[in-house]
Amino acid sequence: MNHIDELTDRLIDGTLSDTDGTELETLIASDPTARDHYLALLNVEAALRGLRTDLDLGAATVRRIKAERAERTATAVMAEIVERPAPKWSRRSSSRRWRWVAITAFAAALLVGVWFLSPAPNTPAPLANPGVITKDVARIRTLSGSVEILNLGESVATSADQTLVLGQTVQTIGEDSVAVLEFPDGTRLELQPDTTVRFTAVGDENGSPRKLFLVNGQLTAVVTGGRTVVGTGAADVVARNGSFSMGTSGPESVRVEPKDGDVQVVRGEPATPMLLSPGRAAFVRDEATPIHIESPFKIGTVPRNRLDFAGAYTVAFHADGQEVWAGSAKQLVRWRIGSEGRGTTTQRELFTPSAKNDGYLAVITPDRRALVACRVDDREDRVVVRNLPVGDVRHTIPVRVTEPRFLCASPDASWVATTGSKPNKALRVWETATGQERFTRDLEDNCYCMASSPDGRLLALNPADLRRSSNNKLVFLNAATGEQVFSLPTRRVVTALAFTPDGRYVAAGFNGAVQIWDVPGRQLVRTIEGFERVVTCLAFGPGEKLLAAGTGDGQVWVWSVETGRRVQVLETGNRGVRSIAFSPDGKTIVTATNKAPVALWDVAPEPVKDPEGDT
Amino acid sequence: MDWKLPNSATTTPEADQLVRDVLAGDTEAFAGLVRLYESDLWRIASVMLRDRGATENMVQQAFMDAYAHLDQYQLGTDFGAWIRTVARNRLRKELRTASREDRRLAVYREQLAERLRAEGPNPHDDGNLYLAALRGCREDLPERDAALIRMRYEMGWSFETIASRQGQTQEAVQRMISRIRVRLRACIEGKLSTI
Q1: In this model, does residue A323 exceed pLDDT 60?
Q2: Residues B54 and B30 in one domain
Q3: What's the Cα-to-Cα distance from A165 to each of A135, A447, A538, rounded to whole Å?
Q4: What pLDDT score does A126 carry?
């Protein structure tokens, strides 16, 4: 195998180092034969990846894989169709269609003629080469949802490929709205939903940078063609490979984590740049607090043990700590890990009636006596409550599979709560013993998580008001009647919830923060910030000494509840963490992550010294 | 060994009926179309060389595009060809946004974009010849190599999983699959050059 093949192989397998990468780029650019080898090998890889549907369709295994994936795609597509506004279809007859085509062609020809005759075409200029100064500071490359450009406060027409000039403001409005802007030097800026950016400087011949200003004076980013410079902000900023993205989820904080290349963090006027290299992170809470630069910290990437069960939705430890249970709608796996946590013996219980795939929602109740899961096989599927550890059906709840979006069960599985998504957002609580509905409550907004209090009397949920963060609150309902008992003003959209076993505290996870509330006292006792990721699940350790949060990008952060200090960060992969559980002795964590093995991790001892380093 | 292009049907009555149902208000019928054409779209999306999740996401987006413009499909024609065109349009969009995402794949993606530009809306598709050649080359592989390709690409197993099942180290599995890829490349080039 020649050297270009070795380098291309590493690229394919994701093991290419930066040095190798530079060598690969040089070879491709300078040697046509190497370029051909590289392209041909990537073409083989692409075709092989297509294999999962194309070849050997006679094999039963491939049929099963294909059916599962098609089903998953069908489920996802149908869920998205339900969420979106109905398209405005028109059925044109064939003759009318051709008439329309002719009119369009005529109009296009007319426009082309006018364009040729125009002395000075007023079309947007192409992107300049690096170093060429132009008043076009950026160009919209992608937009979706509602994106508005304001010129001196007046809205102007917005389209893909449109050039943006000095003084103009770009707004993405609403939760589905995204815009990608590209600068002449190739840097890209992704505006997440509800982001507003104004262009304040276009640069000059001396290489002065172009500047962007996040409206409300919170963030300025300067694009230099090399290093990315990010200023103080109330936005999430992540710089990767010469691009950076930002969102406005955290009202008063920003975390900057360069993945490749250096980033300068500046704030205010005059700017004080602080260099940030990969491995370090900057955390800015608000304009008055100094920027906190974290020392590089070790992220745990190697679990002690793994279980090959990528479809697991929920995990729990057996009371003796020597067995892990991992479940989905399709199966329960009892994993005998032993006292050292290194065991590999498994007992896999495939449920009857059999399910084609692992479904998309499942929870093991805190008493470990029930597994509640949604099956997604056909239109007749239901939410099924199964006895653990055997897996036989205890009760069936008559909820259509497309309806539940989030699922919550009381600790003894005596009731189950489901919420749907638009347009069926209602909260429904079911009596599992009878399958009867206890109550229904209409929700104005989507709800992203729910939790039962340990005594099963309260149901906590957060109907998310995405438009006004300050409106958000954690609502506690009487689980028997549906009446609101009280609420806590979280002021953010809650994405994960966990009660302590005694019900005294509840942890609420957000995008970039976790709040711990004293439930009887109705008081916020601690806010943990500085990680700027969406929390997908939470778990308290035994004795409530530690709190673990799984994130949407596959990390698990562990903090000391008492001090709020970070104890550990685990990297489970790049997929969302679905479920976390501590072992009874608190020394081990088990994680279930989307499309990754269930993994067992050693919990690090709590550091005596602040691990977050210098400020 | 026969690895010539299969003949494609030019009409798709089963899909047409589903399209009629969807347009008449039976939204659930769209799931049937997804099941019928998911594999075609997967093949198109996989050329982006992204991970499986991203590929799956792109396939879903292509179906969403198709759903949004379903009224533009002309009944009585080839729905497969139409939806593959929709998927290619989605691929073009993805290529535009991904063009600077990974500079080490930039040259490959330029070639891909060039290929897409060269393809017309012809339903009888690009790439079939290449895939037929690949199929032939796979049939020529020794059983052990064929099994490795099945595990890696059909089952979607990680190198680690394959290594543990085969009782080998991950590095050894990675090296073997690398060598198989290179052999397949030579074989495909040989077959295509004789056409």
Answers
A1: yes
A2: yes
A3: 6, 39, 45
A4: 27
User: Does the beta carbon of A132 lie under 8 angstroms from any beta carbon of chain B?
Assistant: no
Question: Is a pLDDT exceeding 60 seen at residue B6?
Answer: no
Instruction: Indicate whether A306 pLDDT > 80.
Output: yes
CB contact under 8 A, B135 and A308: no
Q: Is the pTM of this model over 0.90?
A: no
B103: which 2 tokens? 């500079």
A231 neighbors A219 (Cβ within 8 angstroms): yes
Share of chain A above pLDDT 70, in %: 61
Which is the CATH superfamily of the domain at A310-546?
Answer: YVTN repeat-like/Quinoprotein amine dehydrogenase (2.130.10.10)
Q: What long-range pairs does A8-15 form, CB within 8 A, spacing at least 24?
A: A8/A37, A8/A38, A8/A41, A8/A42, A9/A41, A9/B178, A9/B181, A11/B104, A11/B105, A12/A41, A12/A42, A12/A45, A12/B49, A12/B181, A13/B159, A13/B174, A13/B178, A15/B174
Q: What is the pLDDT of residue B57?
A: 80
Scanning A187-216 for CB atoms below 8 A from B yields 188
What is the per-residue pLDDT across B102-113, written as a single tens digit (0 to 9) for each? 777 888 888 888
Q: A260 has which bridge partners?
A: none
- B173 lies in a domain? yes
Name B114's Cβ contacts closer than 8 Å, sequence gap at least 6: none
Nearest CA among A319, A297, A210 for reference residue A569: A297
Domain definitions of chain A by residue range: 3-50, 136-294, 310-546
Is the pLDDT at A599 greater than 90, yes or no? yes
Segments forming the whole domain that contains residue B71: 13-118
| Residue B147 contacts A, CB cutoff 8 Å | no
B50, part of any domain: yes
The verdict on a CB contact (< 8 Å) between B30 and A53 is no
Domains: count for chain B: 2
Q: A385 versus A18: which is more confidently predicted?
A: A385
Average pLDDT, chain A: 73
Number of neighbouring beta carbons within 10 Å of residue A306: 17
- Report the residue of A56, A73, A142, A238 to disrupt the B interface, i.e. the one with the largest count of B CBs within 10 Å: A73
